[in-house]
Each structure stands twice: as structure tokens, then as C-alpha cells.
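[recover] target loaded
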């Protein structure tokens, strides 16, 4: 029977667990100097002109060097990604992966506008934002200091990111994540209900993906 850290890891739902494992492995590889951030960052020229397509993926798994900001983003991403996967996307692994994949594509398209070589932080804010919109009346205690309701959580975390980094430029990535998260929430919660009245390719994973993840 698994105990301790192994039991804790097994309790994390699969998509969040895989995402967390890749982020930790990437940070360890850089700390051990097996790779450098220069080999992982994303730019359209490097990825598509210089034919280094892995950059379109690896940039989502590096949260920066070990620091307060690193711990801050990793903790909140894991906490709310896990809660979202366990509630809204329970037994719907393909749909959650599809949400993250669509969000990643949108962030890649936006990255040249903001000169953003690493997109792990904005992608981490997508599940935080969507969870907060789907639990509007849930009270949240921030560091035991203040209590807010869930819809204000993304704003509070962006403000905290600004405080620990000392500049609003550092919070731009989190704001990008909130914007993309809002699009994801709108396509899944508002559009099917108000505009179309049913699921679409934007709100549900393709059948082939569901079969791949064993959801069918």
C-alpha cells in the first residue's frame, strides 16, 4: 500500500499529475544543467523557421528558477488544476486535456504580442480562472489574512504576483492566462447555454481523443 509522498502523488488526478511531473522534471533538468532555458523557450522563428518544434511544447513546463514566484505559481496551479479536474472534469480526462490544449494554442498565438518566451504561468492561470467562475459563492482565505469569494481569486493572485515581483510587467503573463481562461469559460459555460444550446468542438473533446484517454 503506497504511503507518504507516493500516496499523495497517486491522489492527484492524471492530467494535473502529468503536468506537474513535467514541470518538476524540467526544473530539475535545468538545475542539473542537462538543458538550458535557451533550449526551451518559444519564438515563432526558432520553432517554425529554424525547425525546432519542441519549443512550442517545452515552454509550458518551465516556471523559472527556484524562487518565491516559482513556488507561488506551482502551488496555486496544482491546487486549482486538481480541484477543477476532480469536480468539473471528473472522469472526463480528454475534455480537460482538450481545454488545456486549446488554451496553449491561444497563448502561443498571443505570445509575440507580449514578447513572452515562456507560457507556463499564463497556462497555469487558466484552470484557476475557470474554477473561480464555476464556484462563484465559495469563500477563499488568502494566506490566512483575508477572505474573498472565488471570482476575485484571479485578481488577488495577479496583484500578489505584482507585489512579489515589483512590477506590473511581471503580472502580464498572469493577465494573459486570465484572458484565455475567460475565453475557455465562455465557450464551455456561456456559449452552449445562451447562443447555441448544445456542446461544440470547443467545449468537448473530439471522439478520437476521448477514446485515446479511455473516456468512451
Amino acid at each position: 500500500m503506497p504511503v507518504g509522498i507516493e500516496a499523495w502523488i497517486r491522489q492527484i488526478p492524471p492530467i494535473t499529475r502529468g503536468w506537474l511531473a513535467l514541470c518538476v522534471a524540467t526544473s530539475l533538468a535545468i538545475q542539473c544543467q542537462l538543458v538550458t532555458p535557451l533550449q526551451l523557450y518559444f519564438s515563432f522563428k526558432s520553432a517554425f523557421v529554424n525547425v525546432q518544434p519542441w519549443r512550442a511544447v517545452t515552454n509550458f513546463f518551465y516556471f523559472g528558477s527556484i524562487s518565491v514566484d516559482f513556488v507561488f505559481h506551482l502551488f496555486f496551479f496544482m491546487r486549482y488544476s486538481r480541484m477543477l479536474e476532480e469536480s468539473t472534469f471528473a472522469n472526463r480526462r480528454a475534455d480537460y486535456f482538450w481545454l488545456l490544449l486549446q488554451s496553449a494554442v491561444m497563448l502561443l498565438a498571443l505570445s509575440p504580442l507580449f514578447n513572452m518566451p515562456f507560457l507556463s504561468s499564463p497556462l497555469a492561470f487558466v484552470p484557476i480562472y475557470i474554477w473561480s467562475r464555476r464556484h462563484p459563492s465559495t469563500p477563499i482565505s488568502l494566506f490566512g489574512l483575508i477572505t474573498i469569494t472565488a471570482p476575485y481569486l484571479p485578481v488577488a493572485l495577479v496583484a500578489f504576483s505584482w507585489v512579489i515581483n515589483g512590477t506590473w510587467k511581471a503580472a502580464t503573463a498572469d493577465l494573459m492566462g486570465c484572458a484565455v481562461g475567460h475565453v475557455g469559460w465562455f465557450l464551455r459555460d456561456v456559449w452552449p447555454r445562451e447562443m447555441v444550446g448544445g456542446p461544440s468542438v470547443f467545449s468537448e473533446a473530439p471522439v478520437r481523443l476521448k477514446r485515446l484517454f479511455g473516456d468512451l
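[recover] notes: The chain has a mean pLDDT of 88.
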